[in-house]
UniProtKB/TrEMBL annotation:
It comes from the Bacteria. This is Phosphoenolpyruvate-protein phosphotransferase. The keyword Transferase applies. Its main location: cytoplasm. It is found in: Cytoplasm. The chain holds residues 251 to 575 of 577 of the full protein. GO terms for molecular function: phosphoenolpyruvate-protein phosphotransferase activity. Its cofactor is Mg(2+). Residues 2-291 form the PEP-utilising enzyme C-terminal domain.
Length: 325
């Protein structure tokens, strides 16, 4: 099976009935690019930049960040690279920021909330990204967006830094897409409004599931509630994809669910444009997608969304898959 998959490294991902989707990778450091290319990744769908900030005693400088972003963009040779701005907080701490302990870190001062407040740190990252933007196909993504106001504020800061750099005579790409992670239910529900202003969505199911089900993604005792196939989650995912398409934008997914064998047929049926997963899952996902029909999967979506439990959904998808092979 591994040998079969290896043949797919340079193949596009096209369903049996001709629907093209993009299979891209989640990375944490520039060193991960090797694995992306070896596994036939068509781009990077999520670069988790927090690793640049972790395991050290002070903030990374603009130069350090510029080097990392430039390396990733160059090594991807013009393929899309979605870089997520700093998503610290929750399970990821930065001791040197010396932030007060919180009762509910996952509901607290993290990610874009922290960046909009600690603006010097945020602006340094944005400058590094903007300077690196001419070395490849950069897309910038803000994490944990809960309101349109947060997105507008983050985008305004980005555009301010861009204008400053240009005034300094530094080249900046004019084609950078600016998108958001959809990982908070309020944003999924308001996706139609967001879609008018963002260039793309990437659905972060790791957090979207925990916030929708009110079940900590790290807590084993409530892990039975962590249900990717719950119709509640699938309905939110559908809202986001439909909202994007209505405005001519694209929708991807960068949570673990994007590489999940049971979820993939549903996501194809829902019209997801981009699947971002760990590099080691890409070839398996490609081989699965080549054998699926988009039209067939679309035709069962209504039935799936009207099911009552996650188990029912899982059973139906597994039955269909057995019939396929
Ligand atoms: C997510 O929440 O789905 C996601 C991709 O981000 P992280 O796992 O880094 O929170
Ligand atoms: Mg997340």
């Amino acid at each position: 099976q591994k040998a079969e998959w290896a043949k797919l490294v340079n193949e596009p991902t096209v369903s049996k009935d001709g629907q093209h989707v993009e299979l891209v990778a989640n990375i944490g450091t520039p060193e991960d690019i090797k694995g992306v290319l070896e596994n036939g990744g068509e781009g990077v769908g999520l670069y988790r930049t927090e690793f640049l900030y972790m395991g050290r005693t002070q903030l990374p400088t603009e130069e350090e960040q510029f080097d990392a972003y430039k390396t990733v963009l160059e090594r991807m040779e013009g393929k899309p690279v979605v870089v997520r701005t700093l998503d610290i907080g929750g399970d990821k701490e930065l001791p040197y920021l010396d932030l007060p302990k919180e009762m509910n870190p996952f509901l607290g001062f993290r990610a874009i909330r922290l960046c909009l407040e600690m603006q010097d740190m945020f602006r340094t990252q944005l400058r590094a990204l903007l300077r690196a933007s001419t070395f490849g196909n950069l897309k910038i993504m803000f994490p944990m967006i809960a309101t349109l106001g947060e997105f507008r504020q983050a985008k305004a800061i980005l555009l301010e830094e861009k204008a400053k750099l240009k005034a300094e005579g530094i080249a900046v790409s004019e084609t950078i897409e600016i998108g958001i992670m959809v990982e908070i239910p309020s944003t999924a529900v308001m996706a139609d409004i967001f879609a008018k202003e963002v260039d793309f969505f990437s659905i972060g199911t790791n957090d979207l599931i925990q916030y929708t089900m009110a079940a900590d993604r790290m807590n084993e005792r409530v892990s039975y509630l962590y249900q990717p196939y719950n119709p509640a989650i699938l309905r939110l995912v559908k809202m986001v994809i439909d909202a994007a398409h209505k405005e001519g934008k694209w929708a991807g997914m960068c949570g673990e669910m994007a590489g999940d064998e049971v979820a993939i047929p549903i996501l194809l049926g829902l019209g997801l444009d981009e699947f971002s997963m760990s590099a080691s899952s890409i070839l398996q996902a490609r081989s699965q997608l080549l054998n699926l029909s988009k039209a067939e999967m679309s035709s069962i979506i209504e039935q799936v969304l009207n099911m009552t439990t996650a188990e029912e959904v899982e059973r139906l998808i597994k039955e269909i898959e057995v019939k396929e092979v």
